[in-house]
Amino acid sequence: MNFERKRLRPLFPPPADETGRIWENKGIKGVHHLTGNGEIRIQRRIYWKEGQGTDDRIDRWLGIADRTVSVEARELCSRVATSVQGFETGSKMLDHLAQIKVSKERLRQIAEREGQSVLQAERLGVIGPEWTVADCAVSAGGPTRIITGVDGVMVPMVTQEEKKERRKNRSRKRKGSSRRKRMFAGYPESYKEFKIGAFYDACKDHQLVFGTAGNASALGRQLRRQACGLNFGQADEKQSVSDGAVWISRQLQIQLPILDAMTLDFYHLAEHVGEAGAICFGAASEASRSWIHQTLTLAKTQGASGLLRQIDQTRRTLRASGKRKALTALENYVSERAAMVDYPTFIAKGFDIGSGPVEAFCKTLTMRLKGSGMKWDWPNAEAMMALAALDQSHLWDRYWKIQLGLAA
């Protein structure tokens, strides 16, 4: 947006210190500020004093002291950046739908910076859900139940070799200039596992999802912090559902030792049973389907004891070493998770035996990161994932109200 330049009376008198001395007049300074209605250009007089710096009262009055992008424009950029396949397409959409002209590079910078702000707000407890376990009753007058889940998902990373090539290309483009844009160090591998955690109620009306590019311990600390905010310990029934990975079970035991039940996702058990059945009886054969169905039925009705008995009886009828080895591996898998496959008890209590919500969160939080041909620096990927988690946790509107100073 272009405004006609006019000479206006100063909104603020020249500042003076305690002795009454006027600060040094540094002349007129212009600034470009991106808003939800496009870019505006502002010119204002700047005053400066040694030891005090620049007087920014008029910038603070205009709301442009801390950023060159308004809250409304930041929200639009963040929404577009997380919902389209690529910053270039997002830039075009902003221009077409909101008449906001911003390059794909600036759009990327705005969105990633906002994602970092979301992460910081979450760490400081500034932003959080407006529900607790008290809102998670299974039925009217019934017990409160909260479920947690953890999983890992691979995200494509920019390697160090690819970064070296990018630096060469940038150097060629900027030959003769001493300015160099800062770049993150490349990742040593092509993929990195991001950790995702979630809390939700039995009806799936309340949900809180979060993620990290850190290790298992980083996710564990985040899990505990979020649990405290939800008053996790006050729930009548506290359950976890996961794929049974060792690192997940360890973090749940360390960070949430008050869990009433740790459940192995039934689908993951079915995958292991299916693999053993295919090896022993042939893939997609009638005998394989029959054995798999019978084995999984025993898991639901008799738990670990029925499963292990079925595996042992089947192994006794086979002689091929490969088939016996497959059944031994399945037996070890079940034995190590015996308490997690107590499905008769879980079903009787009405507990979930599937980790569908967490699997869905893994897809939605990384959908933007795993588009065709996309590769990321891990801090930027984590920032974009934070914006997606904000939306999935139904905290998007609350976060932006806080930015505007409108939150209660």
Please supply descriptive tags for the structure shown above.
408 residues, alpha/beta, three-stranded antiparallel beta sheet, disordered N terminus
Indicate the topology:
Layout lengths: L23 E12 L2 E12 L3 E2 L2 H6 L8 H13 L3 H12 L5 H20 L21 E12 L3 H14 L17 E11 L5 E6 L3 H14 L7 E6 L3 H10 L5 E4 L1 H16 L4 H31 L4 H16 L6 H7 L6 H11 L11 H15 L3 H9 L4
Helix pairs in contact: 2-3, 2-4, 3-4, 4-13, 6-7, 8-9, 8-10, 9-10, 9-11, 12-13
What does this structure look like?
The two termini are 33 Å apart. The radius of gyration is 28 Å and the shape is globular. Strands 6-5-4-7-8 form a five-stranded mixed β-sheet, sandwiched between helices. By secondary structure, the protein is an alpha/beta fold. Among the domains are: 133-170 and 184-265 and 354-392, Nucleotidyltransferase, domain 5 (2-Layer Sandwich); 267-341. The chain has helices at residues 57-62, 71-83, 87-98, 104-123, 160-173, 216-229, 246-255, 266-281, 286-316, 321-336, 343-349, 356-366, 378-392, 396-404, and strands at residues 24-35, 38-49, 53-54, 145-156, 191-201, 207-212, 237-242, 261-264.
How does the helix and strand content classify structurally? alpha/beta
List the secondary-structure elements in sequence, H or E.
Answer: EEEHHHHEHEEHEHEHHHHHHH
The top level CATH class name of the domain at 133-170 and 184-265 and 354-392? Alpha Beta
Biggest sheet, strands in spatial order? 6-5-4-7-8
Based on the coordinates given, report the CATH architecture of the domain at 133-170 and 184-265 and 354-392. 2-Layer Sandwich
Distance between the termini: 33 Å
Low-confidence runs: 1-8, 176-180
Portion in strands = 15-25%
Helix content: 40-55%
